Amino acid sequence: MRMIPWKGPAPVDAVEAAAAVAAAIAADSQLVARCLARDPVAWRMLYDAHHARVARLIAALGIVDGEADDVCQEVFIIIYRHLRTFRGESRLGTWIHRLATRHTLRYAKRRRLRRAVLDLLARAAPPRLPHDWGENAAARRQYLTQLLERLPPERRLALVLVEIEGRSAEEIAAQCGCSVNTVWTRVHRARTQLEALAREAERGVAVTPPRSPSGKARP
To answer: Is residue 114 within 8 Å of residue 157, measured between CB atoms?
Structure first.
């Protein structure tokens, strides 16, 4: 039996979702207009709405402690300088995420953090599994954080956005400027490397990332 394509109105849920997105984009545009008019209250609203997400992104890319605060402030200075380029074609949060990702990766490269992470993987033993792993949630979080710090930035970012932030691969691809397949490749390799590090933790054997024929770590 041949199925006849549905040509009626869009489902109610889809219409409501589209309306919600349109309303959110309109609200973003209004907030941007107020910021560009030098409204201090609007700038504070923008900062409060997006600071936590930017800070999580920076941490996911391996920038920690005082450096993370500095990079976060730099991101918002860049937002201030470039807000006029926001066209309202997507959510303001998506635009900010792209800008923050580019700046943080540039910062990481300048500080040779990516090379430092790879060198650490080659030299250092994985962290020891805490004795009170089963009972202490804080110990589990700290141990996982130590393992994540040993992943290359792109893999760590993809894994955090999928597993912790709950983002879709399509959204991550758009924000990171790569293909959906690349996102899933990075997530898969991050999971594989994380599992290997966890398995070797008690034996103190370092696990190095696979390398391409050029000698660089794969994404």
So the answer is: no
0.70 exceeded by the pTM?
no
Kindly state the tokens that stand for 201. 């933790």
Query: pLDDT tens-digit profile of 208-217?
Result: 444 555 555 5
Domains of the chain: 18-111 (1.10.1740.10), 113-219 (1.10.10.10)
Of the candidates 81, 88, 6, the residue with the CA atom closest to the CA atom of residue 14:
6
Of 45, 18, 57, 39, whose CA–CA distance to 167 is shortest? Answer: 57
Tell me: the pLDDT tens digits for 162-205? 877 778 888 888 877 788 898 889 888 888 888 887 777 656 54
Assigned token pair, 106: 């540039």
The rounded distance, in Å, linking the Cα atoms of 156 and 105 is 12
d(CA 185, CA 80): 34
Question: Are 190 and 159 spatial neighbours (Cβ–Cβ below 8 Å)?
Answer: yes
